[in-house]
Amino acid sequence: MGLIPVKPDEVATIVTSLEMLERPRPAPLPASSLQLVRWDKPAIDRYRALFRRIGGPWLWFSRLVMADDTLAAILHGDAVRIWAVVDRAGIEVGMLELDDRKAGECELSYVGLIPELTGQGHGRWLMAQALGLAWRKDVRRVWVHTCTLDHPGALGFYRRSGFVPYQRTIETFADPRAIGILPADGAPHYPLLANRR
To answer: Is 110 exposed, middle or buried (0-12, 13-18, 19+ CB in 10 A)?
Structure first.
């Protein structure tokens, strides 16, 4: 065994990909005060603001650095479906993004809630919604990936939801805090080394 150094201005994470090859049995929808609101061709700034609120603590940054026209082509295409999760006051507190661009498959591209809602059961409600929407008529496979930067309970949650791990990869990328995409004090569970003196 050997340790592979990671540059101080980079992040390394282990990515686990999981899949579901059969539609789950129907079950009662878990209770939640939240609702899904379909976002048809969302405004890029609005989408990024919610993406940042949900994913910033976990170093989600890919959609923050993507060129506007590239992101618009994804979000405004017919094969990507997006919903905002809203609370009783209509405030956006989560998102669900399903990618149907590959025939016969649906990727849960982004599914998440703001950190303040963690541990309140809303995640089970959101996953039930996601699976109900993902398993369309021609879908034979639903898949998702998570990584060691995500909430520590994410991998177990996906497995309890019926997903089975099938692949593990290592990803490295420039630390979004070191390049000013996310705040330097974000993701305290993963120390920022680039600015260390």
So the answer is: buried
